[in-house]
Automatic annotation (TrEMBL):
Species the sequence originates in: Algoriphagus hitonicola
Superkingdom of this protein's organism: Bacteria
Keywords, comma-separated and alphabetical: Membrane, Transmembrane, Transmembrane helix
Protein name stated in the entry: Uncharacterized protein
TM stretches of this protein: 6-25
Length: 111
């Protein structure tokens, strides 16, 4: 038999792990972009760029200074909470040991 099947199995498992984690990180990153794009389309007064990732605290300050209806502010706050939670989960995932290797190899950085 030899070691070839063992090496192939371990290599396949490592590749599958890498692809799964990379897919998960990419989904979280795309969700962050999508939420900001939806917010910029819903309320153009904020001056957000649809493709950029912006800090939720900066968006929150813009909302406080902008003159918006109460329903618009509530909707914005809901989206900002989602942005903050998604960013927290993404950054925590990148800090953990096996996942930070995948993030470093694939080129993912903190949001």
């Amino acid at each position: 038999m030899g070691f070839i099947p063992l090496f192939l199995t371990v290599g396949g498992a490592c590749l599958l792990f890498f692809l799964t984690v990379k897919n998960s990180l990419q989904k979280r990153h795309n969700l962050q972009r999508e939420l900001i794009a939806n917010l910029s389309l819903a309320i153009p007064q904020l001056g957000l760029v649809a493709g950029e990732i912006t800090d939720p605290e900066i968006i929150l300050q813009k909302i406080k200074t902008a003159e918006l209806k109460k329903s618009q502010k509530e909707e914005c706050l809901k989206v900002i909470r989602e942005l903050q939670i998604n960013r927290l989960h993404y950054n925590q995932l990148i800090k953990k040991a096996p996942y930070n290797w995948v993030a470093k190899i694939a080129g993912f950085q903190k949001i």
